[in-house]
Amino acid sequence: MERDILLEFQPEGDNCIQNSKQNENFKVSSKRAIVRQSLPDAIASDIRERILNGELEEGLTIRQEALAEEYSVSRMPVREALKRLDAEGLVQLTNNLGATVTKHSLDEIGEIFDLRILIEVDLFRRAIPAMTPAHLQKCEEILEAMESSYDADDVGKWGALNYDYHSALYAAANRGLTNDVLHRINLQSDRYVRMHLSVMEQRDPAAKEHRDLLEFARAGKADEACDVLTRHIAQTKKNLLRLMIDKRADEDS
Question: Is 0.70 surpassed by the pTM of this model?
Answer without folding.
Answer: yes
